[in-house]
Amino acid sequence: MEYMILIYGDEGAWARMDESQLNAAYGEYMAYTQELVSAGVLRGGSELKPVSTATTVTARGGKMRATDGPYAETKEQLGGYYLIDVANLDEAVKWAGKCPAAKEGYCEVRPLSPSPPPA
């Protein structure tokens, strides 16, 4: 079954890191990513650009509106994700617990709904 590991944290903390701290943090993520690859469970993933680059879209009363920025102000921002394919939620939670983000921010684990096969 496929699960998303959604990575949340204070993106301002990244901006305050010096180069050696950034290199160390990215090294942790690269090691974690390689562990997922080696286990054969990684299906995709990416770091997201800063929340300041977001565009929020709403459609109300037949009118679409796009606004700059996130929908809501929060202390933590969605910073990236991993898409994994594992046997069950317990296994997905174990992988999320190994994610570097779990040490400072948090990881949300969500199952994906099965997609219908392409026509």
From TrEMBL:
UniProt xrefs under PANTHER family: BLL7171 PROTEIN, BLL7171 PROTEIN-RELATED
InterPro entries, per the entry: Dimeric_a/b-barrel (IPR011008), YCII (IPR005545)
Start and end residues of each YCII-related domain: 1-113
Name recorded for this polypeptide: YCII-related domain-containing protein
Domain of life: Bacteria
Family under the similarity heading: Belongs to the YciI family.
Pfam families the UniProt entry points to: YCII (PF03795)
